[in-house]
Amino acid sequence: MRGPALRAGLRYGLEAFALGFVLGVIRTLIVAPALGTSIAVLIELPLLLLAMAWRAHAIVQRSSALAGNGDLVVMGITGSLVLMLAELLLGLALGISAEQWYDDLFHMPGVAGLAGQGPLALFPLLVGRAKRVRAE
């Protein structure tokens, strides 16, 4: 079944959320006041994606149960969905309605975060395929 891929995706998504939370606090309190919100997000996003590519690599390397491309796709999609759900739940906890959270995805800085979801979901597949090519 896909249990190992789902567990790996859950871990991947929660790690992305935790790192994004820390970087978001730094962005909001330090970088955005000095450079503006949009510039701060454009600085934060590559750092987050670079770190999550490294984490995807580490998770895939450690799990021998992730057998093929299907498992890697499940891991990436699960991680991306977990991240989005965690962001929504944080927004709700901070008093932002689900409608407002959704609308914010289509305006800066939300659109940058939404654009980062694609690479985030693809990293497990990309690093997993690279692992298999090196093994051959």
TrEMBL record:
<protein>
    <submittedName>
        <fullName>Uncharacterized protein</fullName>
    </submittedName>
</protein>
<feature type="transmembrane region" description="Helical">
    <location>
        <begin position="106"/>
        <end position="127"/>
    </location>
</feature>
<keyword id="KW-1133">Transmembrane helix</keyword>
<feature type="transmembrane region" description="Helical">
    <location>
        <begin position="72"/>
        <end position="94"/>
    </location>
</feature>
<keyword id="KW-0472">Membrane</keyword>
<keyword id="KW-0812">Transmembrane</keyword>
<feature type="transmembrane region" description="Helical">
    <location>
        <begin position="12"/>
        <end position="32"/>
    </location>
</feature>
<feature type="transmembrane region" description="Helical">
    <location>
        <begin position="38"/>
        <end position="60"/>
    </location>
</feature>
